[in-house]
Amino acid sequence: MSFPASPAPDPSPAPDPSPATERDARERVPGAWQGPGPDAAGGSVHPVDVEDLRARVHRTIDEFLDRQERVLADMTEDCLPMVEAVRDLMRGGKRLRPAFCYWGWRAAGGQDRPEAVRAATSMEFFQAAALIHDDVMDGSDTRRGLPAVHRRFAERHRRHGWSGPGDRFGLAGAVLTGDLCLAWSEELFCASGLPQPALSRGRVVFDRMRTELMAGQYLDMLEQAGAERLGGDPVDRARRVLRYKSAKYTVEHPLLIGARLAGADDTTATALSDFGLPLGEAFQLRDDLLGVFGDPARTGKPAGDDLREGKRTVLIAQTLRSVRPDRAAVLRSLLGDPGLDPQGVARLQEIIMASGAVDRVEDMITELTDRSRRALDGARVDGRALPVLRSLIGVATDRKF
Predict the structure, then answer these.
(1) How far apart are CA 203 and CA 9, in angstroms?
(2) Whether residue 397 has pLDDT greater than 70
(3) What mean pLDDT is predicted for residues 150-175?
(4) What distance lies between CA 103 and its chain's CA centroid?
(5) Is the pLDDT of residue 37 over 80?
(6) Would you call 139 exposed, middle or buried from its count of C-beta atoms within 10 A (0-12, 13-18, 19+)?
(7) Which of 197, 186, 195, 198 is nearest to 257 (CA)?
(8) Separation in Å, CA 343 to CA 140, 141, 300, 351
(9) From the CB of residue 72, how many other CB atoms can be counted at a distance below 10 Å?
(10) With 70 as the cut, is the pLDDT of residue 115 above it?
(11) What dotted CATH number matches 43-398?
């Protein structure tokens, strides 16, 4: 498994580890996610809430956006809808990327400290940028149960009766807002308060994450535009898109950023990479299933939205690989139709189910999850972090919170 190399060690000391024994950690956090684990008061705590992490990430987001709101207000209040759109978008989300970044830090021996939480929270702004731009490219109407940012700006244009095409204004506003989130992720990471040598170590992975995500987005766009003409196996191509567009920046890269910030050596980084990449792939495969069969109340998007957007996922590739030619023709003719009605969605769902593709994707999720568990079993990581990382495997793949 390849991963970004670390710069040469610097003379400054890495954060002092504060290891707990694995037994002590297990008393507070379940070894595998089967429901909430016990907290110190005998209640229950979700793995993302261990060390009060979710609440601390929320506070960091709010404080950072308050500062950015003042910056924009100093220019003109006309810019405030940009930060308002980001604030509303970021009220939702599972906070998995900050969790993996923070527990990558702890896995490499880093102590609990606010600077690490701030660096981890920068992952949320990076994800916000990816979501905003992804919705523009896919023409999505909603995100997390709210209008997508480009729809939000288009509606603002319509409401005020401004001149020019409202949709074009909405797209431009969303692209710029996404770019702001990219800049803000960089700003929060650099201003986290961690020592510069630590930031330099983490930046190697951070920079690669940004490059690979943008290239993965392009590969996704290319797949939707030319899937029938591209060479190679469609399932392999879909897995390549999945890996670079989502899997690596969801789990593997945040883990490695946190670990490198704490001074992880290459052996630890390799173990975390071997754990994180298959888990990230399993996460996205589950997301692809939810994009076709998920409950809108849980997904925040209309049922079958991935079908209307024409996403060439592993699920679709597996279906086309095994379905009868007449049914493949129906799937190709309806996939990507933005006007697909509920009857059309139901028809495609039935074709996908009958092909056996859902079972094959579920088998892939199981195999990837098992591989992730085995990699973690052989990893030398801090005893406090190990059971939390194990718990996050189920959280990332069950998606029931």
Answers:
(1) 14
(2) yes
(3) 97
(4) 16
(5) no
(6) middle
(7) 198
(8) 20, 19, 20, 13
(9) 17
(10) yes
(11) 1.10.600.10
Q: Which two tokens stand for residue 141?
A: 């109407």
What pTM does this model have? Answer: 0.87
Q: Tens of pLDDT along 296-342?
A: 877 777 778 889 988 899 999 999 999 999 999 999 999 989 889 99
pLDDT digits (tens, 9 = 90+) for 211-245: 999 999 999 988 888 766 777 888 999 999 999 99
Quote the tokens at residue 302: 């209309």
Place of tokens 């024409």: 310
Map out the domains of the chain as residue ranges: 43-398
CA distances from 336 to 319, 340, 343 (A): 15, 8, 15
Contact call for residues 258 and 103 (beta carbons, < 8 A): yes
Q: Could you give the angle at which helices 114-138 and 253-261 cross, rounded to 10 degrees? A: 160
How many CB atoms are closer than 10 A to CB 225? 12
Q: Exposed e or buried b for every residue in 180-216, given b needs 16+ CB within 10 A?
A: bbbebbbebbeebebeebbbebbbbbbebbbebbeeb
Q: ∠ CA(188), CA(269), CA(381), 5° rounding? A: 95
Q: Which two tokens stand for residue 349?
A: 């769902």
Alpha helices in 227-304 (DSSP H): 234-242, 253-261, 266-293, 296-299
pLDDT tens per residue across span 251-300: 999 999 999 999 999 999 999 999 999 999 999 999 999 989 988 877 77
Q: Where do we find the tokens 């690669």?
A: 208
* Residue type at position 385: A
Structure tokens at 213: 């995500």
Residues 6+ apart with CB under 8 A from 397: 279, 282, 283, 286, 365, 369
How far apart (Å, rounded) are the C-alpha atoms in residues 167 and 161? Answer: 13
Residue entry with tokens 């925040």: 300
